[in-house]
Amino acid sequence: MNCPDCGNEQTRVIDTGASADGTSVRRRRECQRCSFRFTTYERPGWESLQTKKRDGTIEPFERQKLRAGIERAVEKRHVTEKTVTGLVDDIESELQDREGRIVSSSLIGELVSEKLRTLDKIAYIRFVSVYKAFAEPEEFLRELDAVLDAELDDFEASTDSQ
């Protein structure tokens, strides 16, 4: 670390501690040449997002993996390639805007579910059946009923306003 006063490269750490918010390390330094004291902050930095899986492992975020999951859900539906790209862009952008660089796979799944639910109900059902790992037909039926109930509520609301 160069001294901000004289530019000397030789500085030494005289005190170290966590920042008030706990997201960085605060270091008090002193220049070896001019004895100027200053504070630096070290924060973890990653080149890209990291995904925390259900089993606790952390791996790099893979845009192509996200895209593949969405493409499987919209397969043989009237959803264009451009729409899929826009969906992937939106989700990645939302993840990048988050404060932390590590995002849980469950958060990614929730974002995809939310976007697919408004885009295409069948694609949504396909995605959540895999994402939520339905084990029984009743779970599938409950989710389908929730989608149909929401659709019915939307229909009734639109006819009431006319």
Automatic annotation (TrEMBL):
Zinc finger boundaries on the chain: unnamed: 3-34
GO biological process, one term: negative regulation of DNA-templated transcription
A Pfam family the protein falls into: ATP-cone
Keywords: ATP-binding, DNA-binding, Metal-binding, Nucleotide-binding, Repressor, Transcription, Transcription regulation, Zinc, Zinc-finger
InterPro entries xref list: ATP-cone_dom, NrdR-like_N, RNR_NrdR-like
Annotated TM spans: none
Record carries keyword Phosphoprotein: no
UniProt cofactor(s): Zn(2+)
Note accompanying the cofactor annotation: Binds 1 zinc ion.
Domain ATP-cone: 49-139
MF terms (GO), sorted A to Z: ATP binding; DNA binding; zinc ion binding
NCBIfam families found in the cross-reference section: transcriptional regulator NrdR
Free-text function comment from the UniProt entry: Negatively regulates transcription of bacterial ribonucleotide reductase nrd genes and operons by binding to NrdR-boxes.
HAMAP family per the UniProt record, alphabetical: NrdR
Family: Belongs to the NrdR family.
Name used for this protein in its record: Transcriptional repressor NrdR
Primary gene name: nrdR
